[in-house]
Amino acid sequence: MPVLVMKFGGTSVANLDRIKRAAKRVGVEVAKGYDVIVIVSAMAGRTNELVGWVDEISPLYDAREYDAVVGSGENVTAGLMALTLQEMDVPARSWQGWQVPLQTNSAHSAARILDIPPDNIRAKFAEGMRVAVIAGFQGVSPEGRITTLGRGGSDTTAVAFAAAFQAERCDIYTDVDGVYTTDPRICSKARKLDRISFEEMLELASLGAKVLQTRSVELAMRYGVKLRVLSSLNEQSDSAGTLVCDEEEIMETRVVSGIAYSREEAKMTLVSVADRPGIAAAIFGPLSEAGVNVDMIIQNISEEGRTDMTFSCPTDQVKRAEKALAEAKARGEINYHDLIADTDVAKVSAVGIGMRSQSGVAARMFKTLSDEGINIKVIATSEIKISVLIDRKYMELAVQALHDAFELEKLA
Amino acid sequence: MPVLVMKFGGTSVANLDRIKRAAKRVGVEVAKGYDVIVIVSAMAGRTNELVGWVDEISPLYDAREYDAVVGSGENVTAGLMALTLQEMDVPARSWQGWQVPLQTNSAHSAARILDIPPDNIRAKFAEGMRVAVIAGFQGVSPEGRITTLGRGGSDTTAVAFAAAFQAERCDIYTDVDGVYTTDPRICSKARKLDRISFEEMLELASLGAKVLQTRSVELAMRYGVKLRVLSSLNEQSDSAGTLVCDEEEIMETRVVSGIAYSREEAKMTLVSVADRPGIAAAIFGPLSEAGVNVDMIIQNISEEGRTDMTFSCPTDQVKRAEKALAEAKARGEINYHDLIADTDVAKVSAVGIGMRSQSGVAARMFKTLSDEGINIKVIATSEIKISVLIDRKYMELAVQALHDAFELEKLA
Known about the structure:
The structure is a homodimer. With about 400 residues, the first copy, chain A, is α/β, with parallel strands linked by helices.
C-alpha cells in the first residue's frame, strides 16, 4: 500500500481533543488506502517547560542529559495518539526514536539523522498495522544515548521518514494553513501560496518564516520529498495548504514569491580597523570559532589605511561576538577603535526564483524603500534573495510597501 | 568502591528545589566513598496526570501504549537529577530502563524484572563516574517495548539494583520518616520503629500500609537486601528511619509490631448456597478467573444442605465478582438465593513475628475489640498476622484500642 507521512506539531496535539481531531484526519487517509506514518511533537508548551527546567538547573548543561529530558515530551504524545487511533479501530502502535531506531550522530541537541532502517515498521504494516506513530524530534546516538534534532526537529523527522519509506507525500500539519507571501499579522494583503519551490522555502525558513525547520526543507529537496504545509486546526476548511515542490512543478512565473523579515538580527560595526591584507580573515576567523553566525558583511572604502567593517549576526550572539573580538584585539591580531552593536535593526528580504532570470528586482526594492524614506544600512544578496538591514521601526512599513511593489496580493 | 542504592519517590523530586535537596543527600554519600545508584520516580502528580489521559482516551487501553506513556515521567526526573549532580561537580549520568537494560517479561503495566546486567554501569563507575541515575518503574520487554512495574514499582527497581550490584544498603527516601507501629494520623501514640523484619513489612505492605511496594519487600527478603525507609523532606532531622532486615537482626522481642488497616475491603455474602463437595471450588474458581483477589473466606455451618459463604475482596472488584458469580449461577455451576455486598466495612490487622512463639495474641485482640463493643464479621490469620473485618465506623477506634492493648507506644 502507498505510504503517507503526516506530521502534527505541538499546537495540533496540545490536548486530548486536538489529538482526537488529528487522529480523525489520519483515519481519513487510512480509509483512502494509505499506510500512514504519523510524526508527533510534544504537546504545546511541554518542551518549553522541560527546557526551562534544564536551563534553571544548569546554564552550561550536559547536552546528553538535556536531550534525555527534553526529548521525553514526544513519547507521551506518541502513545496517546496510538491509543486514540486504536479507540477508532485503526490498528496503530507507537515507536520512540530508539525503537525504530532513528540513528543519528552524537551531536547532542542538534543531531543529524544517519539512517532510518524501515524493516521493523514495514513488517508491522505487512501484518496489518495501518498507522505507525513516531515520537518526533528524537533519535539515538551510536553510544545508545538519546539525541534530539534541534527545535523544530519533528519536521525533519517527518521528511526523513518520508524519504526512507518513499512516501507519496509528507503533510506537515501546523497552526497556519500554509505558506504566505508574508506574515498576515503584519500585512493584511498577504496571500497563501498554493505552491512554492524548495529553494524559496529554504530561503524563507532561514530568514525567519517559522513554518518549517530549515533542515527539513533541505532534506526534502535532496530526496525529492513532496512536502505539504496545512492547518490541523481549521475544522471546516478543506484547504490543500501549500505544496513545497520542485520549481518545474510551479507553472506560473513570478519574480518574487515572498517577503520575509527577522527582528533577531543585530548590526555590528568595527570602527576604524587597520586595513591590511588578511584583515577579514583575522576578524571573521575568531567569530566563527566562537560560534557566531555572521550573515551580512560590508567593508567601507578604506581611507588612510583604516576602514570600517560592518556585519550582522543574531542578537543573542552579540555578547559572544564582542568577547571574541576583544580577545583577538588583546592578542594583537586586529586593531580597531571601537565596536558598536546596534540591536535596533531588522532584516527584510524579498525571495523568489524568478530573480534568476529577471533583472531589476534589486533596483525596484531599493526604490520602494527610498520612496518610503527608509534608509538601507546593509545589503546582502543571493541568487534568489535580496536582504536589507533597516531601522527596526520601519520593518512593518517596509514589508507592506514591498508586498505592494511586487504585487504579491495577486499571487495564490 | 562499595555501592549504595538511594531511591527518591515522587514527593522527594516534586520540583527543582526538592531534586536539589535530594542531590545534596546523594553528594553526602559520594563524599563518604560510595558509588551511588539513584533511582527516581516521576515528579509528584505527573504519573497520575498521564494515567488520567490514558483512561480518558481509552478505558480498555492497550497496556503497551499505556506503559510507553506512563513510564515517561521518570525519564524527566532522571535527566534533571543527573544535571543537578553535575552542577555540584559530582560525575553523574542518567539511564532509562531500556538503556541499562532493565529486562522484564512482557506483562505490561505489571511487568516482572528478569535481569539487570550490571556491566555497562560498572564500567562507568570504573571510569570515575560516581552516580548512576536510573529512571525507576520502567523496563524493556523481550520485544523491545517499554514496560512498567506497577504502581510503586520504583521501590522494586531500587531493590533489584541493590541485589544486582550487591549494594551495602538500599535507602528508600519518601515523605514519611520510617515505618510506624500504625498510621500516626489515626493514632497519636504511633511510634516509629527502628527495625522491622522483612516478614512483618511484607504483611504490613500487603495490608495497606503504603510505605513500600509489596514486591520490593519480597525481593529484598529473597536477596537479603538491607532496606531502609527514611524521609527526604525532614531537613533538620538526621533520623536513621526504619531498617527492614532479617528477624535475627532485631534484638528486642515483641509480640506485635504494628496495627494495619484498610478501608478498601468489601464483605460479600452468598446467602443460602446449596452445600455439596466441591462447592468452594465452584465459587472461587470463577472469581479467580475474573481476576478477583479474594482475601478472607468464611463458611457458615451447614443447615439442611444449605450454607452461607462469606468472603472479602477489594471494593473496586465488587462489580466484577458479582458478574462472575451471576454467570456461574446462570451456567448452573452454583446455586444461591442472594448475593449481598457490604462495602461499609474495614479490615484491621495485628502483625508481629512474635506471634509465632507466643500464644494468646488472637484472644487478646478479640477481647480488646469486644470490650469496645466492636463486632467481628470475619477473621483471617496467618503465622504472623491476625485480621478482622469490622464495621467501617469502628475502624479508628479499633486501631487505637489495639495499639494500646499491645503497648506499641513502648516500641521504638
